[in-house]
């Protein structure tokens, strides 16, 4: 490889020039190896923050970060492997629903997931609400389970995209997290390393999302879709509303119960609709449907006839979990205490700060403030009122599920999340766009 200097690359990006593939490759490899100091990598990230990146640059950065560590070889899995990624939100449990739904259509879902840091656990934490559920397995077992059941979820390899982990930690402390090309490359490098053939992205926008404005969410969606397609991964994105939590429950076991109810056909309207929409797009990318309309018919069919629910039981049991709570929700971990959070004024719910609901859930033990924190699987919040609903003073807005004695701070946080209007309020749109 040509001898390069980091100062030249920083200067070129600072001045708005497009970096070559060779320059980006050299940067990622040299930074991963410790040959570039953090202060120069920080200067590079800041230059990208202000100047942006072309689609070609972002794709080159993605492929290099994906290649910096382990990459899953899923070629031994039959069929088109379709993955889904959400940019994160409060009460977002769609992965728990989509896996069985799509696998029931005979489309392989080979999912790598992590543990959560924030308001609730990640998909792995939620699945561990099933006693005995295991996600640590070698690649051979993972491939075997996907071929057998069309569905498996494993914990992320410790050496998946190490260059991205290193660069993200630096961005986190240098004010350069909110860079669309860097976010897009970070997300897509993990998807590329995880080996999927096709990817459906759920890009959230609103008060509980990383991208609060619709305009920025669209920019991120286009950037990720462009990267995926340019790297020969069929990729599309749905932009969905996160101005309020998804569904009625926030918290690990509570969200799993709601996911099971959705697979049973009894889920809340918003969670059902988003899950079916995402699954329909996965059916198209997985080659089982020609368009979303046909995909929706297939998805609704396996939902209504119980095939998807049976797939959930098979999936849980195959990974060592006890599937009994799927038929008897009383067997899920349950909190010792429930406390009502009541409205202090009357009116229609006009706004919800979803992030505050998530913060309250973390205060109750449903999430982690640091990676070493223990999760309380039973803790969480049940929402009784959402945007557009009417609540009189004294009515229950939410129910806290907790083990701890003092829930006052969490209750105050939940009340602060609600705003009211004397006039009737229209329920917000759930899905803004598909890209």
From TrEMBL:
Supply the Pfam families for this chain. Glycos_trans_3N (PF02885), Glycos_transf_3 (PF00591), PYNP_C (PF07831)
Q: Note the InterPro entries from the entry.
A: Glycosyl_Trfase_fam3, Glycosyl_Trfase_fam3_N_dom, Glycosyl_Trfase_fam3_N_dom_sf, Nuc_phospho_transferase, PYNP-like_C_sf, PYNP_C, Pyrmidine_PPas_bac/euk, Pyrmidine_PPase_CS
Question: Which GO-annotated molecular functions does the record name?
Answer: 1,4-alpha-oligoglucan phosphorylase activity; thymidine phosphorylase activity
Q: Which domain of life is it from?
A: Bacteria
Name the reaction it catalyses: thymidine + phosphate = 2-deoxy-alpha-D-ribose 1-phosphate + thymine; 2'-deoxyuridine + phosphate = 2-deoxy-alpha-D-ribose 1-phosphate + uracil; uridine + phosphate = alpha-D-ribose 1-phosphate + uracil
Pyrimidine nucleoside phosphorylase C-terminal domain location: 348-421
Gene3D superfamilies the UniProt entry points to: Nucleoside phosphorylase/phosphoribosyltransferase catalytic domain, Pyrimidine nucleoside phosphorylase-like, C-terminal domain, Transferase, Pyrimidine Nucleoside Phosphorylase, Chain C
Q: Which cofactor does it need?
A: K(+)
Q: Could you confirm whether the keyword Glycosyltransferase appears in this record? A: yes
Q: GO terms for CC?
A: cytosol
What are the alphabetically sorted keywords of the record? Glycosyltransferase, Transferase
User: Which GO biological process annotations does it have?
Assistant: pyrimidine nucleobase metabolic process; pyrimidine nucleoside metabolic process
The EC class name is transferase
EC id: 2.4.2.2
Q: How does it assemble?
A: Homodimer.
The record ties this protein, via NCBIfam families, to: PRK05820.1, PRK06078.1, Y_phosphoryl
Instruction: Give the family per the record.
Output: Belongs to the thymidine/pyrimidine-nucleoside phosphorylase family.
| General function of this protein | Catalyzes phosphorolysis of the pyrimidine nucleosides uridine, thymidine and 2'-deoxyuridine with the formation of the corresponding pyrimidine base and ribose-1-phosphate.
The protein here is known as: Pyrimidine-nucleoside phosphorylase
